[in-house]
Amino acid sequence: MRYSILFFLVAATLAAQDELPDFGVKAGLPLSSTSGESAFRWTAGFTGEVHLIWRFSFEGDALIRKYSLGHSKMTDWDFPSLLKYRFQAGRVRPFLEGGYSLSYESREVYGGGGEHVTSYRYDTGPVAGVGLEFKRGRLRIEPELRFTLLYQAGVSGSNGVLLTPLVGLRF
What are the DSSP calls for the chain, one per residue? Predict the structure, then answer.
């Protein structure tokens, strides 16, 4: 019964909206990291957004972050799910966003003598951000600053803070 009501509410919200879902890309350069590395790193990926009611929308991203440190190469996949609120209508709209992220890290360590070790871990944590949306027809340009606090699963007191400026292009 609960799922029927939830399905009805979601279907009614989508049917009542006047905008189609948006899809696009995001990219940025993290200002901080979860592992303390100082090597060059970048973030890029895909984004999708469903517009709800009262200036609210739901955004889901699939972002990859690559970097290296010494003899290690790291690849992080971040999957944030965010609820976004826009403050006004028009061509320039400030917004706030908040939600939760799942992060998957793959670390490859290359040692002397041809040694190669790969390790994996999952992190989760809250996400918050602030930005501006510039709208021109179907094109939306969104510079934003996103803050992520990640907790390593099963490890007490283990966390990483990630501050990332991103620019999104959606259609």
Answer: -HHHHHHHHHHHHHHH-SS--EEEEEEE--SS-SS---S-EEEEEEEEEEE-STTEEEEEEEEEEEEEETTEEEEEEEEEEEEEEES--SSEEEEEEEEEEEEEEEEEEE-GGG-EEEEEEEEEEEEEEEEEEEEETTEEEEEEEEEEEEEETT-TT-EEEEEEEEEEEE-
